[in-house]
């Protein structure tokens, strides 16, 4: 690991001031992604600004019925929070299916959103990878790409965004609050991550000197009937091949409210707008679910090893909606 | 170099280390506490599990400087005065180990897991997410312990040991 200077920020103003004057600096949350990537030489900050002592660890109910989650809330604490378990069960479930209990005790909300892809070539400094080294090519296209994306990819990069938590959050219309020396901005999570296009190294709209301070969830009664379903190679402690975050509201046999997002298949946490459009106002039946899933996956592009995800994603969407219809939510 | 206070198993020591050093390497290299093992050094096996303020973490992905002045417990700190921890005794009774390489991580992880369960935390296999009195079935134990791999496959003995201690 390259040597670096370490400093611990006591409060938000000093954290954003420190990063604004240190161009080669990075914030350190739980470290579960950054330390790993520094050890591999993929990340090499000159200065590491530890933000785990910042007072951003609350989960608070907002006057409008929404919830504000501090950026330094650990993943395990968020998943176990009763407000989240009862009102947004898909979020608790998504977090609980991610990583391991030890990692969730370390990982923070902000770090989880900014975790980088698990594409094999991104980690391998001998490989060509446009994300790690812009302009070097992409060894995943035509290589080992079983874990890579079928939606939102470009000829520059087909890496998936690996987070489970972010998939649930994007289904919930979450808003990310960020702060820098220039002030505060609020960014809808659906616009926070960027598609790779020709610049896969630029992953979000966050500026290098901006600190994520909170994530806010709007009040969303239909989220009480929601679930997260994750399909993977082993039952636990594995990244998603396909995952579905969904909430469903049905009245008189007709879909009156629906939220769907997909993980494991796309270059960013993928809100399934097309599937939602097909479903809203449609009869709540397997046929509608299937039509919606097909519409969402219509633009999907399979590669040498991940073509199977197209059908798997469709089936996972149908199965999740069917469970919501017949058994209700996870709470 | 950075000066930090490491408080491990109730004993405080000042150490001077470079910020790249992981908590795992500091425990083993600086303090000579070699009970905690390094399996993968990338968060994927659980052999390096220790408790920080009672919560289990992977010490390989933790920078030691980040844990300055926190209460750390390693496998060496589990036993009481002259007597093994109930989980240690149960592992011996139930063949919860073969080579023993994963065992210190399994033990620390199990201590942390039982505390999480006691506090009402759910898991990915908990049927009703809001329930706070979930029974620690074998499925629950396996899911909650999935962050600890055992290359020897001593899982049945590990699960049996934890079940026994949870029930007592
Ligand atoms: C073996 C293993 C298995 C895993 N499995 C899964 C899985 O199945 N599902 C899943 O979703 N995840 C999984 N993960 C990933 C894990 O969830 C992430 O590593 C974790 O959420 C990152 O959070 P952190 O706080 O540790 O981030 P850090 O490593 O501290 O930081 C990550 C990045 O975010 C930046 N950052 C952190 N906080 C802020 C902030 N507040 N503002 C601005 N920038 C910030 C850092 O500078 C860094 O670039 C796994 C990880 C490992 C090691
Ligand atoms: S898919 Fe993206 S991350 Fe993977 S090798 Fe290609 S450019 Fe790199
Ligand atoms: S050595 Fe830390 S998880 Fe494997
Ligand atoms: S006892 Fe050998 S690895 Fe678990």
UniProtKB/TrEMBL annotation, chain A:
Keyword Oxidoreductase attributed: yes
One Pfam match: CO_deh_flav_C
Keywords: Oxidoreductase
SMART domains per record: CO_deh_flav_C (SM01092)
Domain FAD-binding PCMH-type stretches: 1-222
GO molecular function, one term: oxidoreductase activity
Listed name of the protein: Xanthine dehydrogenase family protein subunit M
Provenance organism: Umezawaea endophytica
UniProtKB/TrEMBL annotation, chain B:
Top-rank taxon, per record: Bacteria
Pathway involvement of the protein, from the record: Alkaloid degradation; nicotine degradation
Coiled coil: none
UniProtKB keywords: 2Fe-2S, Iron, Iron-sulfur, Metal-binding, Oxidoreductase
A Pfam family hit: Fer2
Domain 2Fe-2S ferredoxin-type: 2-78
Metal-binding among keywords: yes
GO molecular function terms noted in the UniProt entry: 2 iron, 2 sulfur cluster binding; metal ion binding; oxidoreductase activity, acting on the aldehyde or oxo group of donors
Protein name: 2Fe-2S iron-sulfur cluster-binding protein
Originating species: Umezawaea endophytica
């Amino acid at each position: 690991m390259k040597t670096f200077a370490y400093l611990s920020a006591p409060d938000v103003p000093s954290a954003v001031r420190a990063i604004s004057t240190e161009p080669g600096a990075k914030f350190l949350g739980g470290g579960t992604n950054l330390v790993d990537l520094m050890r591999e030489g993929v990340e090499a900050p000159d200065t590491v600004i530890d933000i785990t002592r910042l007072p951003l660890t609350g989960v608070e109910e907002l006057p409008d019925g929404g919830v504000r989650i501090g950026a330094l809330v650990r993943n395990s604490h968020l998943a176990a929070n009763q407000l989240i378990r009862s009102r947004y069960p898909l979020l608790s479930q998504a977090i609980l299916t991610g990583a391991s209990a030890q990692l969730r005790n370390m990982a923070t909300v902000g770090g989880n959103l900014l975790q980088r892809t698990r594409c094999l070539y991104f980690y391998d400094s001998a490989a060509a990878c446009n994300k790690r080294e812009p302009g070097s090519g992409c060894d995943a296209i035509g290589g080992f790409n079983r874990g890579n994306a079928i939606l939102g990819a470009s000829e520059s990069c087909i890496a998936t965004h690996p987070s489970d938590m972010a998939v649930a959050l994007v289904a919930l219309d979450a808003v990310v609050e960020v702060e820098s020396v220039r002030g505060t901005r609020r960014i809808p999570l659906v616009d926070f991550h960027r598609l790779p296009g020709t610049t896969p190294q630029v992953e979000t709209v966050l500026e290098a000197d901006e600190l994520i301070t909170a994530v806010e969830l709007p009040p969303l009664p239909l989220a009480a009937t929601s679930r997260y379903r994750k399909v993977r190679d082993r039952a636990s402690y594995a990244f998603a091949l396909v995952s579905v975050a969904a909430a469903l509201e049905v009245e008189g046999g007709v879909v009156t409210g629906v939220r769907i997002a997909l993980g494991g298949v796309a270059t960013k946490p993928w809100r399934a707008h097309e599937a939602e459009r097909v479903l809203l106002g449609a009869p709540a039946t397997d046929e509608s679910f299937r039509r919606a899933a097909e519409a969402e996956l219509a633009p999907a592009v399979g590669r040498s090893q991940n073509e199977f995800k197209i059908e798997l994603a469709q089936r996972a969407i149908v199965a999740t909606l069917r469970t919501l219809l017949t058994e209700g939510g996870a709470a | 170099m950075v000066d930090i206070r490491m408080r491990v198993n109730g004993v405080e020591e000042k150490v001077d280390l470079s910020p790249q050093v992981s908590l795992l390497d500091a425990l083993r290299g600086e303090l000579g506490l070699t009970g905690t093992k390094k399996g993968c050094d990338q968060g994927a096996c659980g052999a390096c599990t220790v408790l920080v303020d009672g919560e289990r973490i992977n010490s390989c992905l933790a920078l030691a400087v980040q844990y300055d002045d926190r209460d750390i417990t390693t496998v060496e700190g589990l036993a009481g005065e002259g007597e093994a921890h109930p989980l240690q005794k149960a592992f011996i009774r139930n063949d919860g180990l073969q080579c023993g390489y994963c065992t210190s991580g399994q033990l620390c992880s199990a201590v942390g897991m039982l505390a999480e369960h006691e506090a009402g935390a759910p898991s990915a296999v908990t049927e009703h997410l809001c329930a706070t009195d979930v029974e620690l079935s074998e499925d629950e134990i396996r899911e909650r312990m999935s962050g600890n791999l055992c290359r020897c496959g001593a899982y049945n003995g590990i699960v049996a040991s934890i079940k026994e201690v949870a029930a007592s």
